[in-house]
Specification:
The chain has helices at residues 2-10, 13-30; strands at residues 37-49, 55-59, 64-72, 85-89, 99-101, 107-108, 114-119, 122-124, 126-138, 141-142, 149-157, 160-166, 176-178, 181-182, 190-194, 196-197, 204-205, 212-220. It is mainly beta and 236 residues long. Strands 2, 9, 12, 13, 16 and 17 form a 6-stranded mixed beta sheet that branches. Strands 6-4-1-3-7 form a 5-stranded mixed beta sheet, with no helix packed on it. It has a 3-stranded antiparallel beta sheet with strand order 11-18-15, with no helix packed on it.
Length: 236
């Protein structure tokens, strides 16, 4: 019996091997893509949501994380940074916590896909108590007026503005400067619209206001003499 079985395997083994390979290739070809799973690792932006209103983010986490995803072959073209989102929700965050884990439930992926790994598995960030302060707005006047003209006065509207940011970024006596106003280009009273520049990159304007109006009052030097009474000389 054993000999008969061995003879069946050995006889015409080349044809049998070829037949097996053909059958295997056909099997692979006919398997639906939905039953063939692949893995892909992509770099995805890390989104930070719901920072508490009383806190400010002073040290940000990495901009991206690497996510390994397992999905059917037919779904793989849909696995990309536009369809996969990593969201770190800081709604319950505290200034004392600096390390935050990343878990699969923070990752939004197309239905049918599965998160296999996240790197890094946790990220570092730092929160700080927020502060708001009203600061003086100071116009940034560059250069001098053309010859023969005088700067009479400068009006700034609004003269003050509300600034918000991390408490440690505020320093006493600081002011909000504006984008430059070039005086050498002006020869008459002019109103220009400029942008506020907080004294620290971590500070920002805390109101919907996005522009400052500066009115520069200019007059000719000759105008100073007009209307002035003549000075009489007296003799003793």
């Amino acid at each position: 019996m054993l000999t008969l079985f061995r003879n069946l395997l050995i006889k015409n083994w080349e044809l049998k091997l070829i037949s097996f390979l053909i059958a295997f290739i056909l099997w692979l070809t006919l398997i639906p893509e939905e039953r063939t799973f692949l893995e892909k690792t992509i770099s995805v932006p890390l989104e930070v949501h719901n920072v508490p209103s009383q806190l400010e983010l002073v040290e940000k986490p990495p901009e991206t994380v690497d996510v390994k995803i397992r999905a059917p072959q037919s779904l793989m073209p849909q696995i990309n940074p536009t369809t996969v989102h990593v969201v770190l929700d800081l709604q319950m965050a505290d200034v004392r916590q600096t390390e935050y884990p990343l878990t699969p439930n923070m990752i939004s992926i197309p239905p049918g896909a599965e998160v296999k790994d996240i790197h890094p598995s946790q990220v570092s960030l730092r929160l700080e108590e927020a502060r708001e302060e009203i600061m003086e707005v100071r116009p940034n006047l560059i250069g001098n007026l053309p010859e023969g003209y005088l700067l009479e006065k400068v009006e700034v509207l609004p003269p003050q503005i509300l600034i918000r940011g991390p408490k440690s970024r505020f320093k006493e006596g600081e002011v909000v400067m504006t984008t430059p106003v070039v005086l050498s280009n002006l020869s008459q009273t002019t109103e220009v619209v400029v942008s506020p520049i907080p004294p620290n990159p971590d500070l920002r304007v805390a109101t919907p206001l996005s522009a400052i109006k500066i009115k520069v009052y200019i007059k000719k030097k000759e105008e100073e003499k007009e209307g002035k009474p003549a000075v009489k000389k007296t003799t003793k």
